From TrEMBL:
Region (Disordered): 46-122
InterPro entries given in the database record: Cu-R_B_prcur
Annotated Pfam families: CopB
GO biological process: intracellular copper ion homeostasis
GO cellular component: cell outer membrane
GO MF assignments: copper ion binding
Transmembrane segments: 21-41
Name by which UniProt lists this protein: Copper resistance protein B
Amino acid composition bias (Basic and acidic residues), ranges on this chain: 76-97
Keyword rRNA processing in annotation: no
Organism: Chitinasiproducens palmae
Keywords: Membrane, Transmembrane, Transmembrane helix
Amino acid sequence: MKRQPSLRNRQAQRDAQRYRPVANGWLSPIVALLCMLGAPLSDANAKPATPANNSAVPAEMSAGDSPSRSTSAAHVHRDNAQSRGARIDEARGDHQNHGPHAMHPTRMSHASGAEHHGAASGVVPTAPITDIAQGQSDEDAASTVGAADPQRAGDMRAALAANRILPGNAPPAAFADPSTGVEFPGADMHDMSPRSRFLADRLEYVQGRRPEGAWDVEAYIGGDLDRLVLRSEGEANRDGSDGRIELLYSRAISAFWNTELGVRHDFGSGPNRQWLAVGVAGTAPYWIETQLTAYAGPAGRTALHAMVEHDARLTQRLILTPRLEAMAYGRADPARERGAGLSDLSAAVRLRYDIDKRFAPYIGFEMVSRFGQTARWARQAGERAIDPRLVVGVRFWF
């Protein structure tokens, strides 16, 4: 049986025949020897022989080039193209975690979006090349690949153009999936859709110097930023009632604080009073609910109201709420028995049980103190300047 020549010998024979015009006369043995020496150098880096690996040397090579140099260059070019393709295919699965773009979430989202849009448009997206220099952009990588593989570089540029926000292209719609473009209504930071709520924070029976009822309710309508608030607080007994009602516009100025502007109306014992109200309300550090409101009325009357309270959860349903509230006036109002300066101070603690998040009964203790001229007028009316009270009530909202 005739022995087949080895791969190296066949390669040397083809190279010798290809460059026969150069190897004339006495140069023929030298050319053959150079071809045999060049083949091992190029085969050291080449993959096993396949029909694709036996491609010819580029035809534009000049006749004066060295055969060994030309053959080695052809093998290196062919090996680089194949190994680059293998590395690109291998990088498709793990470049999100190991590639140079793994530290850039925005670039990662664009890369994932390229697979979706590329498949829809008929362009096969190419994952960013992981063996390019660190920090090199995808556009620069496409230019680098274009020097050796124009077809793959063209696919990369097509995928980038289809999926990247290029100059002149409109940005994607806000609050939408970047890969599909589907918008999600209501996913914005501030919910502008109007809604309403009614809260009876205190609706209670008070047992003190004399029995009476008390209320502290609030209702609002609006969104996260702007609201219209209706608030009322007061007491009622057999002799009548004494309370106030406020209508306020509330505007959020931060995540935990609102400004309030509106009007207040006092009713009950004595003549009615009207006030212009301005203040702030919100949550202080350590989850302390805070209200601070200043009032101005006709005839130079002024007032200041402050309230702080905190819900301390003893269990998931048992909540202890200490509360401190004060009222001060700029000038005395004998018709309503309100003295100048600090008029009333109320310190209370209530223990409620949340049967449901919307409904909770409670019991508590409250100490009401009156100061200055207000205390003297209270004693003249048969009341105590310092009045301890037991309270029982409910808290609910809807």
